[in-house]
Specification:
By secondary structure, the chain is an alpha+beta fold. It has helices spanning about 1-15, 25-30, 45-60, 65-70, 75-85, 105-110, 140-150, 195-210, 240-255, and strands spanning about 40, 60-65, 90-95, 115-120, 130-135, 155-160, 165-170, 175-180, 215-220, 225-235. Strand 1, helix 3 and strand 2 (about 60-65) form a beta-alpha-beta unit.
């Protein structure tokens, strides 16, 4: 599975250093069926799993990413934390998918130039293509109904940010950071944007959320003005997986060695 390939590659490098790995499922974590260990690589998304991992972290285990940071990637929390920061982030409204439409003025504020509005599931980050859709203002009600039918109670209505979009991948201390243009893909031509500002924005957002291994999307309405669209824990790192796994394993080794000061 592509989502877990980066973790598998990271584990392989840790095993080459002498670590012994045990793979478990989120359900087993939720049920508290976790072996004692000094290190946990955490790809769990749910609150129940986080509740099981937090005491282990308090007892001295290293958890990457920290359970609190994984919870911060739930969109309703992410919107609040980034909205309270200085990170450039689009106007976003958290809304119950089954509720009446927000007032017309609020909707129009999300689309001042009558461009599309983005609707994203409001809990965990996108897991399927239909978890993030773009629609016109007059189609918002229909789009919300589709989320309701899928059992997704909350959504984020988000302003569209014009300009090229780039996908980024990083590790918190900057030992790994790479990106490519979303439209052209990894093998295509990169858009002409300010790479230093891109990296600074990504690292700042990751720090606010507590993320150590992360990726996301940034739009550039102007070449030197990045706007964060999304960020999440343990992305695929697909185009750069081997280099990323090496860097993540090295970061984890460093974190273990300095865990008393983390």
């Amino acid at each position: 599975m592509n989502d877990t390939a980066i973790m598998d590659a990271t584990v392989a490098r840790l095993e080459a250093q002498g670590w012994r790995a045990i793979k478990t499922t989120e359900l087993e974590v939720e049920q508290g069926r976790l072996p004692a260990a000094p290190l946990y690589l955490n790809m769990c998304q749910g609150s129940l799993a986080a509740e099981q991992l937090m005491p282990l972290e308090s007892d001295g285990a290293v958890v990457v990413n920290r359970p609190s940071s994984a919870l911060n990637c739930h969109r309703y929390r992410l919107v609040k934390r980034l909205g309270d920061s200085m990170v450039p982030f689009p106007r976003t409204l958290i809304h119950a998918s089954s509720a009446p439409l927000p007032p017309a003025g609020q909707l129009k504020a999300l689309s001042p130039d009558h461009q599309k509005v983005w609707i994203k599931r409001g809990d965990v980050h996108a897991e399927r293509p239909e978890d993030v859709v773009a629609t016109s203002l007059d189609q918002v009600a229909e789009a919300l109904q589709a989320f309701t039918r899928r059992g997704i109670a909350w959504v984020a209505l988000q302003e569209h940010v014009p300009g090229p979009v780039v996908k980024f991948y990083g590790v918190t201390d900057g030992r790994f950071f790479n990106w490519y243009g979303s439209e052209a893909g990894f093998a295509g031509e990169r858009p002409a944007v300010d790479e230093n500002r891109l990296q600074a924005l990504a690292l700042e957002a990751a720090a606010i959320l507590g993320l150590e291994v992360f990726g996301g999307d940034v739009a550039f309405p102007e070449p030197d003005r990045p706007v964060l669209i999304d960020i999440n824990d343990w992305p695929s790192f697909a185009p750069f997986r081997e280099d990323a796994a090496q860097a993540i394993a090295a970061y984890i080794t460093h974190r273990i060695a300095h865990r008393k000061h983390a």
